[in-house]
Amino acid sequence: MDPTIKLKITLIGEGGIGKTSLIKRYVFDQFSDGYITTIGTKVTKKELKLRHPVTEENYNVTMMIWDIMGQRGFREILKEAYFYGTQGAIAVCDVTKAQTLERLEEWIQSLFQITTDVPIVFMGNKCDLVDKAQLTYSDVKNFASNYEEPTVFLTSAKTGINVNLAFKTLAEKILKKSAEQEE
Length: 183
Ligand code: G3D
Ligand code: MG
Hints:
Elements: E1 4-12, H1 19-28, E2 41-51, E3 58-68, H2 72-83, E4 88-94, H3 99-102, H4 104-115, E5 120-125, H5 137-144, E6 151-154, H6 163-182
Helix pairs in contact: 2-4
The structure holds guanosine-3'-monophosphate-5'-diphosphate (G3D) and magnesium ion.
Magnesium ion binds near residues 20, 38 and 67.
């Protein structure tokens, strides 16, 4: 039997950028065009098999994925409960709204106040909306380069592109970091 580990991962970023849709796509492999409102927070479970990036052992990973309402006011009230115990984060922006990338700085600051610097994977979401794009891969990459070991994906909750890969990459980064800390 392969060992099982449980990871808490948290999605951060403004409202309306696709966090809830990304989780739905990843966990249920579906996309809803109706607006999905998250009241407070919601936790969704996803199980995956992963080869440990350092030891190369197989693991059963149970991801507990935390979703929050995007409003910043909400973040300030809920952040301790929401971020506490987070082992890795997905920092999401919407490539059709440039300011959603700048806003991530505050989200990450808020997160790091509670968790210290956990691994982050950056997503430039809604990359299917090519005609409306205000941000390129390089824009997101440049922003992410302010943080440790930046990993960036352009994603679409609508088409599903890069969604599985981004979540899986975050799980691997968490395992890698915890292996380094044990050394
Ligand atoms: P949030 O949880 O970050 O607040 P939601 O965002 O997941 O609720 O998504 C907000 C809106 O963006 C929804 O549209 C949703 O369908 C849409 N959306 C999310 N991801 C994508 C994507 O990758 N591509 C496209 N084209 N749309 C996306 P509505 O119209 O229902 O408000
Ligand atoms: Mg939501």
